[in-house]
Amino acid sequence: MFKALLVEKDEDGKTHAAVQELDEARLPDGDVTVAVEYSTLNYKDGLCIGPGGGLVRNYPHVPGIDFAGIVEASDDARYSPGDKVVLTGWRVGEAHWGGYAQKARVKADWLVPLPEGLTTRQAMAVGTAGFTAMLAVMALEYHGLTPEKGEVLVTGAAGGVGSVATAILAQLGYQVAAVTGRPETEGYLTALGAARIVPREDLAETTKRPLEGETWAGCVDAVGGAMLARVLGQMKYGASVAAVGLAGGAGLPATVIPFLLRGVNLLGIDSVMRPYDDRVRAWARIAKDLPMDKLDAMIQPATLADLPQLGADILKGQVKGRVVVDVNA
After folding, report:
1. pLDDT < 50 regions, the chain
2. Secondary structure class of 173 (helix, strand, coil)
3. Looking at residue 205, what is its pLDDT?
4. 325 vs 245: CA distance, rounded Å
5. CA 202 distance to own-chain centroid
6. What is the phi/psi pair of residue 2, to 5°?
7. Cβ-count burial of 11 within 10 angstroms (0-12 exposed, 13-18 middle, 19+ buried)?
8. Contact 92, 69 (CB under 8 A)
9. How far is CA 72 from CA 104, 111, 269, 289, in A?
10. What are phi and psi of 61, to 5 degrees?
11. C-alpha dihedral over 299, 305, 307, 312, to 10 degrees?
């Protein structure tokens, strides 16, 4: 038997999440069984704990799109009992049972070895949000971003992706301009390394002008919508925006002018189906370039029992930094 956060749907179509004891026989098919130590909380998790957001295929369901733990049993030669592993993406926690449990069973292809120098707790302080942030930084670097080119904008900076992106970029020597609509997070963002704070209202609305002054050498955008449209018109010539989220909406009320007249690049960042080799490179960079003292400052500890409330909170934009869930607490 093991504990898990189980989401069930009643006859009226309403979902209910509660911690329950489950038999190991209920685990899905897979190559590797993992004794989960930690998971974390992402926006998708909030959807899956609550109404589902169209992500969950079948109920009852165990959410949790990330987990880190120790291999308990394996039918795949790549992993042996005792190996420490990390999982993010692959629709685990959405279409497949996820990490909000003391045990998980998954395909071996979905796992990555835990990098040297990281604990399972630190890996989940990083989680999908931090993994996505590193992919965004790597994409910006690949397209020519260097510290001497100027300020880098991070939107939704107090959220999970934004927090890690701010810390990584500052550690790499970039001047980070952090966008937030929550004044109470300004001290937190400055401690992560933000050189200045940009109030959300300064970028919240589009303008009739397709181009404004060339301000940003790069951008990690977790907001989308009107803010992304506005930022595109403020990018320097040849600069890139790494789009990682849509907290402000999926629409893009923009023109093609920034692309045509300034050579701006809009880079889509997907972490869910990312190939294995990319994952290994990104996790190696995380272990090297993410300052662990700043990572620790982002952590909000939680248990499985805390998740129904935290899931509702993250959907309202009320979660700061990184929630780390001790599934055995």
Report:
1. none
2. coil
3. 85
4. 22
5. 25
6. -150, 155
7. exposed
8. no
9. 10, 13, 32, 30
10. -140, 145
11. -120
Question: pLDDT at position 206, please?
Answer: 85
Q: What are phi and psi of 179, to 5 degrees?
A: -95, 130
Q: Select from 66, 17, 8 the least CA-distant residue to 39.
A: 66
To the nearest 10 degrees (0 to 180), the angle between helices 120-142 and 276-289 is 100
Distance in angstroms (rounded) separating the CA atoms of residues 76 and 99: 20
CA dihedral (165, 126, 62, 78) positive or negative? positive
- Number of residues written out for the chain: 329
By the 8 A CB rule, do 223 and 241 touch?
A: no
CA–CA separation, 3 and 21 (whole Å): 5
Percentage helix, strand, coil, to 5, in the chain?
A: 35, 30, 40
d(CA 10, CA 290): 43
